[in-house]
Fold:
Amino acid sequence: MAIGLSHSYSSPSADKNGEDELMKKVSFSPLGKGNEVVNGEEIGFDPSEPPPFKIGDIRAAIPEHCWVKDPWRSCSYVVRDISVALGLVAIALHFNSWILWPVYWFAQGTIFWAIFVLGHDCGHGSFSENPNLNDIVGHILHSSILVPYHGWRISHRTHHQNHGHVENDESWVPLPEKIYKNLDLATKFLRYKVPFPLFAYPLYLWSRSPGKKGSHFNPYSDLFKSSERKLALTSTICWAAMVSFLFCLSIRIGPLLLLKLYGVPYVIFVMWLDFVTYLHHHGHEKKLPWYRGKEWSYLRGGLTTVDRDYGWFNKIHHDIGTHVIHHLFPQIPHYHLEEATRAAKPIMGMYYREPKKSGPVPFHLLQNLVRSINEDHFVSDSGEIVYYQKDSPLY
Structure:
């Protein structure tokens, strides 16, 4: 490990006090290239450079117990979230006050999002070592919030296997300039004008992203291999059963009450999902690379993901903001991600971007979201290392 010695640019001829101040800024660089580190930032660091470590080095640094999946602990989070969801319904029905309904909508939508994250863990197999348990719990959780479990699980697997690849990645991928230029104005407006991208998830489930074909509900979609069609069909049937249940419930209690109890929280859940997943791959203060061809690797693509701090919501939505290690090693249970990240950071060095600390509510991330949506529009049609570019006339 090389030592990167920083120096003060404002005082080249430092006296003894200056030397003391200089030594306070001595930092260690894991890059092995002698880059200078000044006030926590490495001068001349290029995040697109191949890292001087291998994914096995990161894995070796993570304690063994972080890989252990505890099904009882995982199920306890399911019981917690479902209990909170049912409790919120009981409170809302008891008071039935327009003063409290907005509070209920936000709280319940947030719990729907937490339930999605647990189903997401089932899809990765980090919920337990038992595939049947994972699939049963995953179907229950995801169907309850209108997500086709296997359909989404398979496309999300594709996302993890190809993260950071312009053409092969699956969700929130950058559009090559040629595809971007051919988008109609309505599509551009909905994709690149806040707040519309925060409502994109149901559309993505139906028809994927621009430039990609298929649907998460169609077992014959390009998303699925022939061996996966029965799985996709099973999840679509479960999704349809939930839609049927909601329809019957609307007849029983009335569509307005169903809208208040379920419809609005569902919209809040979708906004949470799009907000969080977008910012895991976009909106960093410094633009990060996307790859093609021989420049792409699983490690380099994973290192372009970004951790985020969501304040009070970190534990509510099961530390989903601890995203870099999750992307590299999705088998690690969510309750071990923070410890695994702390162990891996010395290996990743400047390739790991420390998230900005949040207050109780992550209002600071709204700025990242708006700036990225306003500036990150397309990437070049050519080149194996590319960065987002802005379509200035769009605004």
